[in-house]
Write a structure and sequence with these properties.
Layout (H helix, E strand, L loop, with lengths): L1 E4 L2 E7 L5 E6 L6 E7 L13 H8 L9 H10 L3 E6 L4 E7 L4 H13 L5 H17 L4 H13 L12 H4 L4 H11 L5 E7 L3 H11 L21 E6 L5 E8 L8 H12 L5 H9 L5 E7 L6 E8 L4 H18 L2 H18 L3 H15 L5 H9 L3 H10 L6 E6 L6
Parallel strand pairs: 3-7, 8-12
Antiparallel strand pairs: 1-2, 2-3, 4-6, 4-7, 5-6, 9-11, 9-12, 10-11
């Protein structure tokens, strides 16, 4: 057990049923938020049934041993629960926010949904059809399509999978495959729970213990980290449109690496809103791009830095060269003012979110996923505030941008 401060209690424990549990009491908050994470995303799917994890996530709520889909939804709505779910590379997640007095009932309904789904045949078919439609709709979302295509090339055979699957694999998924994946991939041993808000953390842990006792008791864990298999490449996807989209990535550091705070500050200097280098140098001064951004992605045990932009076809090559120059220039002339601005921006956001139950539950969940334990907010902020200009130079010397995966999407391919 640990605490972020003298006034907030935190409980962390491995429940007897196998769940990794962490909760922080925030007695002055009017609500409680919870995030349930299964280590069971797209990377863990059978090769022939890509997309099945997301289909499971979408169909769990369509009927249980006690409720049909409408009845389950009505029961949660009656409790005022704001809820959602999602499937990513490595996880399937369920989250909700509700009033404290209804938390136990909301847990029980989610346990019913996760443990006793009936997977109605018609709901399974609808979920597959919708996934096929979403894949088709990507053609009208150039940036999303570019991200998907780059991931397939840069992240490796398993981490590069898209949760939507492929038209071919979706065509092989039916109710039997959905049930099989659910039985193999969802269990208490693959489950992490993070909660924050006006709760009694010990009693909440006991409620989850009771609700998920013996869930998937015969299943092996199976949710081990999957290595990132980065591949340098340059490719083009032709598409008739007015803009050329480009997206590039290269390896960074994992969340639990000692230089992660330095990398976070560095990327903030690149893309910290309207004061970030990419916006001011590439868009405002040279007018090369309509949109430009930098961001980080963290599979467990790995990290990737991304830069993306959209421009007109005749400016594609110049934009690409300018983006690389701005990235590489970080090793030469980062200023103290840029550093202070980036640190202030990160700090302000973290301190603001620390008082919100949903943001705090999300952060606790990320801590469990990447560190195996909650990290006090004060400790994170101290590491951010300690970053120096010299640290950024040392990071770039140790992690040069010497491997790059690039994808362009639009009417024109990069020269060379």
């Amino acid at each position: 057990m640990s605490s972020d401060s003298a006034t907030t209690k935190m409980v962390r424990r491995r429940l007897d049923c196998g769940i990794e549990f962490v909760a922080q009491e925030m007695p002055d908050r009017p609500t409680v938020s919870c995030l349930v994470r299964f280590r069971s995303g797209a990377a863990y799917e059978p090769e022939e049934h890509l997309g099945v994890a997301r289909i499971v996530e979408q169909t769990l709520s369509k009927g249980t041993s006690k409720h049909d889909g409408r009845g389950l939804s009505d029961a949660l709505d009656a409790l005022g629960a704001q809820r959602g779910s999602g499937t990513g590379r490595e996880t399937i997640t369920f989250r909700w926010t509700c009033l404290p007095e209804f938390m136990g009932d909301v847990i029980d309904l989610h346990a019913e949904m996760i443990r006793t789904p009936t997977f109605p045949e018609d709901a399974c078919q609808v979920a597959v059809d919708l996934a096929l439609q979403e894949l088709s709709a990507l053609e009208d979302e150039p940036m999303d399509l570019a991200r998907k295509l780059l991931s397939e090339r840069a992240y490796g055979r398993r981490l590069g999978r898209d949760p939507l699957g492929t038209p071919e694999s979706l065509g092989r998924i039916g109710r039997a495959q959905i049930q099989t994946y659910w039985a193999e991939a969802l269990s208490a041993g693959r489950m992490q729970v993070a909660a924050a808000g006006a709760i009694d953390a010990e009693r909440l842990a006991d409620r989850f213990e009771e609700a998920f006792a013996d869930f998937g008791a015969g299943a092996t864990d199976g949710g081990e980290p999957i290595p990132l298999e980065f591949s340098s490449s340059s490719s083009h996807h032709h598409k008739d449109q007015e803009q050329d989209y480009m997206i590039m990535c290269w390896p960074g550091v994992p969340m639990d690496h000692e230089l992660e705070p330095v990398e976070r500050v560095m990327v903030r200097i690149l893309a910290g809103g309207m004061s970030g280098r990419l916006f001011t140098e590439v868009r405002e001064k040279q007018g090369l791009v309509y949109w430009v951004a930098a961001w980080r992605v963290h599979p467990r045990g790995a990290g990737m830095i991304h830069v993306g932009a959209s421009t007109t076809p005749d400016r594609c090559d110049k934009t690409y060269a300018t983006l690389l120059r701005e990235i590489d220039r970080l090793a030469e002339d980062v200023t103290e003012e840029e550093l202070r601005r980036a640190v202030r921006g990160i700090t302000a956001r973290k301190e603001r979110e620390a008082d919100l139950s949903q943001a705090r539950a999300d952060e606790l969940s990320d801590d469990l996923f990447h560190f195996g334990r909650p990290i006090p907010v004060d400790e994170k902020l101290a590491r951010i505030r300690s970053v120096t200009v010299r640290d950024i130079g040392a990071y770039l010397a140790a992690h040069p941008r010497d491997r790059l995966s690039v994808l362009t999407l639009g009417p024109r391919q990069l020269a060379g």
